[in-house]
Amino acid sequence: HYTDVFSVLKEIEDDLTSKLINTLNTYEISEKKYNPYPIFAELTDVINKDIEFYNLLLSFFYCFFVVNSHNHS
Question: What global pTM score does this model have?
Answer without folding.
Answer: 0.66
